[in-house]
Design goal:
single chain; 5 helices; mainly alpha; 127 residues
Length: 127
């Protein structure tokens, strides 16, 4: 069987040309302003996190979670009969559920408003 050429036998010339080729591609990409798709996705995600709508959703979730924690902490002291750790766990679970529910309602309302606006603009275009 024929043996594959190793880098020692070829004198390392193949590696040097591969490196210079990748450098040329990288330089060309930088000169043209091209970026990876993952970079664009990352930038888009950062912009999404900085949007006012996401800030509003976080505020809605935090408010609902805080209300659930307060309700559970003040009104459920007599009931339950478990240890304090179990009560705290139930409170956190209820807070998470309340936050998720509040965000879901807010998103549903927003989507419904978008659908209504789309129908109205479609009806206005036909008239």
């Amino acid at each position: 069987m024929a043996r594959k050429a190793t880098s020692k036998q070829s004198g390392g010339k193949k590696k040097a040309s591969a490196k210079s080729g990748s450098k040329a591609v990288a330089e060309r990409r930088n000169a043209e302003g091209g970026r990876r798709a993952s970079d664009n996705a990352g930038d888009a995600f950062i912009k999404l996190l900085q949007s006012p709508f996401v800030a509003e959703l976080v505020a809605v979730a935090a408010t609902a979670a805080l209300a659930a924690l307060a309700e559970h902490g003040f009104s459920s002291r007599a009931g339950g009969g478990g240890t304090t750790g179990k009560r705290a766990g139930r409170a956190v679970k209820a807070a998470g559920a309340a936050a998720a529910s509040a965000v879901g309602r807010r998103l549903s309302n927003e989507i419904e408003e978008i659908r209504k606006a789309a129908k109205e603009s479609k009806a206005g275009a036909k008239a």
